[in-house]
C-alpha cells in the first residue's frame, strides 16, 4: 500500500473492487455523457481476452432514478437474451452491499452506505461507442453517405427493440456502439445498444400527461408536448442525429431552455439543417411527424424506412464507390 493517509473521495470515478468475487473493476469508461449509472471496464481472470462492462448506479444520483435505469436495462436484456445481435450479452445481474473506493493504491469501504442492495449488471461486448467514433471527425461533420449508413444501423437496432415490445426514448449517439472494428457493414447492420435506461414497454395505455423524458437535443416534439413516446418518435430522433452529422450541428445546439428547444423543433422543416437532408429523408420525417402516437409499426414499415435511406444512398453513390474516411479507419483500428 502507499502512504495515502486521508479519506478517499466517494465519487463514481474512484469506485473499485471485485464484483461477486469474480469481476475486477478496472476503470470507468471514457464517457462524454452523464448517465444515472457509471459504466466500468471489468476483468475476469478466467476469461482474460473477453471484454466485460459493469453498470453500477452512481452514488450521487437519487436511488429511485438510478434503480429505474438499471431495472429498465435488465428488463430489456433479459427478454432479448440471445434474440438479436443488437443487444449486449447479459452476463450477471446481482446486488452489492456497499461500494469500494480507491486512490493511490489505497482502498476504503463506503463510509455510510445508504443503499445496501445496490444493483449491478455485467454485460459482454466488443464495441466502440458511436458518439466517440463521430467525434473523431476533424471537420465537425460527417460525410453524407456515412451519416445515412449510421442512420440505417440505428433503425435496424430500434426495429429489434420495438419488435421485442419496447420504445427506447433516449435515442442518441451515446446510446449505441459499433462492433470493433468499424466498417460500413457493421455500421449499417450491427449497431448495439449500450444504454437502455429509459426503455419502456410498448404499446401501453396512453397517459394524460407525461413529464419530459429523453434528451433536449434529440427527443421528438411529442416528448416536449407531455405525450407518451412511440416507436415513430425513436425514428424521428434518428433523423435528428443524421441531420446533425451531415451539418455538424442542429438549429438548437446552443439552446438549453426546453421551451425554446421545443419552438425550434416545431419549425425544423424550415431550417437549413433540414434542407441539407436528402429528399427521401425529408419525406420520411414529414411522414413520421404526422403519425398518431398509437400507431403500431410493422416489419413492412421498417423495411420502407430503410428503403428511403437506401434510395438516398444509391442516388448519391450509384456506383457504390464510397469508402470510410481515413480518420475513421485509422482511429477505429487503434
From TrEMBL:
Protein kinase domain span: 1-309
InterPro entries assigned to the protein according to its UniProt record, in alphabetical order: CK1_Ser-Thr_kinase (IPR050235), Kinase-like_dom_sf (IPR011009), Prot_kinase_dom (IPR000719)
Domain of life, source organism: Eukaryota
UniProt GO MF annotations: ATP binding; protein kinase activity
Protein name (database record): Protein kinase domain-containing protein
Annotated source species: Steinernema hermaphroditum
Amino acid at each position: 500500500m502507499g502512504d495515502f493517509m486521508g479519506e478517499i473521495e466517494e465519487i463514481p470515478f474512484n469506485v473499485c473492487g471485485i464484483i461477486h468475487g469474480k469481476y475486477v473493476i478496472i476503470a470507468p469508461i471514457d464517457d462524454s455523457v452523464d448517465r444515472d449509472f457509471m459504466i466500468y471496464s471489468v476483468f475476469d481472470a478466467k476469461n482474460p481476452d473477453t471484454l466485460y462492462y459493469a453498470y453500477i448506479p452512481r452514488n450521487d444520483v437519487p436511488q429511485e432514478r438510478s434503480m429505474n435505469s438499471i431495472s429498465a436495462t435488465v428488463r430489456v436484456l433479459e427478454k432479448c437474451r440471445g434474440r438479436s445481435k443488437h443487444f449486449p450479452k447479459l452476463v450477471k445481474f446481482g446486488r452489492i452491499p456497499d461500494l469500494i473506493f480507491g486512490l493511490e493504491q489505497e482502498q476504503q469501504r463506503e463510509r455510510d452506505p445508504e443503499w445496501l442492495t445496490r444493483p449491478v449488471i455485467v454485460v459482454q461486448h466488443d464495441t466502440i461507442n458511436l458518439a466517440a467514433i463521430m467525434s473523431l471527425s476533424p471537420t465537425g461533420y460527417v460525410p453524407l453517405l456515412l451519416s445515412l449508413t449510421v442512420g440505417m444501423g440505428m433503425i435496424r437496432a430500434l426495429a429489434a427493440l420495438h419488435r421485442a415490445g419496447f420504445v427506447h426514448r433516449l435515442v442518441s449517439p451515446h446510446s449505441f456502439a459499433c462492433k470493433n472494428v468499424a466498417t460500413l457493414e457493421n455500421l449499417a447492420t450491427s449497431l448495439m445498444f449500450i444504454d437502455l435506461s429509459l426503455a419502456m414497454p410498448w404499446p401501453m395505455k396512453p397517459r394524460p400527461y407525461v413529464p419530459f423524458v429523453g434528451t433536449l437535443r434529440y427527443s421528438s416534439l411529442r416528448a416536449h408536448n407531455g405525450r407518451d413516446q412511440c416507436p415513430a418518435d425513436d425514428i424521428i430522433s434518428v433523423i435528428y442525429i443524421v441531420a446533425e452529422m451531415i451539418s455538424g450541428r442542429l438549429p438548437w445546439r446552443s439552446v438549453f431552455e426546453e421551451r425554446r428547444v421545443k419552438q425550434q423543433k416545431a419549425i425544423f422543416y424550415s431550417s437549413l439543417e433540414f434542407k441539407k437532408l436528402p429528399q427521401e429523408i425529408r419525406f420520411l420525417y414529414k411522414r413520421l411527424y404526422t403519425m398518431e402516437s398509437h400507431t403500431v409499426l410493422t416489419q413492412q414499415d421498417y423495411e420502407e424506412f430503410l428503403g428511403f435511406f437506401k434510395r438516398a444512398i444509391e442516388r448519391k453513390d450509384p456506383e457504390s464507390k464510397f469508402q470510410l474516411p481515413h480518420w475513421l479507419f485509422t482511429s477505429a483500428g487503434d
